[in-house]
Every structure is written in structure tokens, then in C-alpha cells.
Specification:
The chain has about 240 residues and is mainly alpha-helical. Among the domains are: about 80 residues, 2-Layer Sandwich (Double Stranded RNA Binding Domain), CATH 3.30.160.20; about 70 residues. It is about 65% helix and about 5% strand. It is built from 11 helices and 3 strands; from the N terminus they run H-E-E-E-H-H-H-H-H-H-H-H-H-H. The protein has a 3-stranded antiparallel β-sheet. Helix 1 packs parallel to helix 2, helix 3 packs antiparallel against helix 5 and helix 10 packs antiparallel against helix 11. The N and C termini lie far apart (about 55 Å). The relative contact order is 0.10. It comes from Crocuta crocuta. InterPro entries: Autophagy-related_EPG5, LIX1. This is AN34A protein.
Length: about 240
């Protein structure tokens, strides 16, 4: 079986059966530039999830197949009813989150707490699968990582207002550019912070990729930090 073709056919079939794919059924591959093995390839699925080659790949074609293989396995697994966001799924996920953070049940009912916001996000996406939910999850992970959620709280924005605003926004170049500018200003305030964050992010991305995990958050972080580094480089050259 040609796993690259099988993955594309899987998503085209989902679209033909009425799946709500905002950007169509196209599966997007991205090779990491390299002149020698091991080659690394990432694949982004129509729902926004991202996976990468998880084996030692001596050729670019093998890297593409490896990425397609792990993405296809996850795409098929995602069709299982247990991956659908239902009332039972929400209760189980919220209970697990409360246990992880030693939270109490009142927090889950308060939209201004982290757990309450998580519940609100799940309830807003009832009926979707976890892979379809991935894009929104990644946006909020990035907003938290970047300090944007904290800044919005300081401006008296409620979590529900923030959620309502970002729930309908795709992860686009505008969001990436704004976050990159935040990192440019951090680097100007604390020289070296950008390279440290980038090194840590690259480690996390490699570890998650080799473990066959979903990568969108780690990869977006890396892309934003590289964008910030490029903007700093442009500023330095224009000052010379």
C-alpha cells in the first residue's frame, strides 16, 4: 500500500462524506532542509494536526512515508467513537484535568479559571473529533505560551470573551507575526532569551516527533521563534 496516497484518499473520503474541512482535504508535507540523512518530514492534516517522520530516514521519500504512516494511524484511530467530543468525553476530560492540577469541582464551573475555560472550549466543539479540535487547542496553547492570555486578563478580558474571539480564528500568518514581534521585544529586553527558547523548543519537537506524538504546538512555536530571529536579523542589517 502506498501510504502517502492512502492518507490523501482517507481525507478526501472524509470530505466527500460531509466532514467540515475549512481548508479542503489537502494533506501538506514539509521537508526539513538537509543535504544528508537522517531526513525529516512533517505532514499537516486538514484538521490542523501535525505529525513527523518518527524513524531514521535515509532518503527524503522514506521520510515522507514515515510521516504519512504515523498520520494515517492517528487519522484512522481518530474515527473511533471514543475520540468524539460528547458529554461523557467532556466530563472525563475535565475530571482528569482537575486531578492533574489538584483543582476542585467549583473551578470547572467557573469560566474564568483555566479548567473552566477548557470545559467551555470542549462544550463549544461538541460533536467534533479530537483531531478536528486540534487547531483551536493549538491557538490557545500558543496564546498561553506567549503570555498573550495573561496580558488579556490584565486588560480585564474574561476568558469567555477571549475564547469567543479566538474560537473562529484559524492559526494564520497574522497571529504568528504578532507573536514573533512579542519575542523580538523580549529579546531586546533580555538578550539571549530567544536562542534559549528556540533550543528548548527544538529539543521538545524532536523528542515528540521520535515518539510519534502530535506536533502542531511544538512546530508552531519553532516557526514563530525562527520568524522572530529573522526579523531581528533584518533589523540589525538595516541598522548597519
Amino acid at each position: 500500500v502506498n501510504v502517502v496516497e492512502a492518507l490523501q484518499e482517507f481525507w478526501q473520503m472524509k470530505q466527500s462524506r460531509g466532514a467540515d474541512l475549512k481548508n479542503g482535504a489537502l494533506v501538506v508535507y514539509e521537508m526539513v532542509p538537509s543535504n544528508s540523512p537522517p531526513y525529516v518530514c512533517y505532514v499537516t492534516l486538514p484538521g490542523g494536526s501535525c505529525f513527523g517522520s518518527f524513524q531514521f530516514c535515509p532518503t527524503k521519500a522514506e521520510a515522507r512515508r514515515s510521516a504519512a504512516k504515523i498520520a494515517l494511524m492517528n487519522s484512522v484511530f481518530n474515527e473511533h467513537p471514543s475520540r468524539r467530543i460528547t458529554d461523557e468525553f467532556i466530563e472525563k476530560s475535565v475530571s482528569e484535568a482537575l486531578a492533574s492540577f489538584n483543582g476542585n469541582r467549583e473551578e470547572a464551573d467557573n469560566p474564568n479559571t483555566g479548567i473552566g475555560a477548557f470545559r467551555f472550549m470542549l462544550e463549544s466543539n461538541k460533536g467534533k473529533s479530537m483531531l478536528e479540535f486540534q487547531e483551536l487547542m493549538t491557538v490557545f496553547q500558543l496564546l498561553h505560551w506567549n503570555g498573550s492570555l495573561k496580558a488579556m486578563r490584565e486588560r480585564q478580558c474574561s476568558r469567555q470573551e477571549v475564547l469567543a474571539h479566538y474560537s473562529h480564528r484559524a492559526l494564520d500568518d497574522d497571529i504568528r507575526h504578532q507573536m514573533a514581534l512579542d519575542w523580538v521585544s523580549r529579546e531586546q529586553s533580555v538578550p539571549g532569551v530567544l536562542s534559549r527558547e528556540l533550543a528548548a523548543t527544538e529539543r521538545e519537537l524532536d523528542e515528540a516527533r521520535l515518539a510519534g506524538k502530535e506536533l502542531r504546538f511544538h512546530k508552531e512555536k519553532k516557526d514563530i521563534l525562527l520568524l522572530a530571529a529573522g526579523q531581528l536579523g533584518n533589523m540589525h542589517s538595516s541598522n548597519c
